[in-house]
Amino acid sequence: MTTTASLDTLSAVRQRRTVPLTALSDRPIPEDTLLELLTAAQWAPNHGLTQPWRFAVFTGAGRERLADVLADSLALHKGAESATPEAVETQRTNQLKAPAWIMVAAQTPEGSKLPPFEDDWATAAAIQNLLLAARAVGLGSKWISNAASMHPHTMQALGFEAGCRPIGLIYLGYVDGEWPQGQRGEATDRVRWFRES
Length: 197
Ligand SMILES: Cc1cc2nc3c(=O)[nH]c(=O)nc-3n(C[C@H](O)[C@H](O)[C@H](O)COP(=O)(O)O)c2cc1C
Fold this sequence. Notes:
Layout: H1 9-15, H2 31-42, E1 53-59, H3 62-78, H4 85-95, E2 100-106, H5 116-136, E3 139-144, H6 147-150, H7 152-157, E4 165-174
Antiparallel strand pairs: 1-2, 2-4, 3-4
The chain binds flavin mononucleotide (FMN).
Flavin mononucleotide binds at residues 17-18, 143-146, 182.
Protein name: Putative NAD(P)H nitroreductase
GO molecular function: oxidoreductase activity
Binding site for FMN: 16-18, 47, 143-145
């Protein structure tokens, strides 16, 4: 596997940004690079070593399959009348604006004595690892949780095992031009310290 990471951890944390689809180039992402990001995800903390994360990766023409499934899920969510040919076409066009999409779900092993929400949290941590690794190799990303991506039909139609819970739909792409600016308050506004006198 090629190691392409170029940013140190804190720079990747500070510079990771949600990038709109319109700011992405259509340059394909090498599969080696995607595998590197998925490997970073694999190293997230997870209670009981359940490794609960499951990924489905869509590139090239594979993105059309994702678009069709999301269009169907949206129709199930909003009502069949919303699945106009234009709406389906918009979905397909959007899907092709990012070179790679990853559907992420959490699975709790049968008989696990730990609460399933811990597997959801671990999977969210895996996503964050992936997004930071993406930033380190120069890729913009977005974590999406809209109704279509979170719909049970999406899980089932994409072949996730029964019981898998959707955690996020991610897209990735090289950024054409400027990265968007981030916005955050001061950490001190959200922290209380308990110190010995
Ligand atoms: C759990 C989760 C779900 C999200 N879902 C969406 C979404 O459905 N649509 C969207 O536009 N952004 C979504 N985002 C991205 C946030 O809008 C984004 O992180 C926020 O605007 C801060 O920008 P930044 O990521 O550049 O710091 C989601 C982020 C998280 C963590």
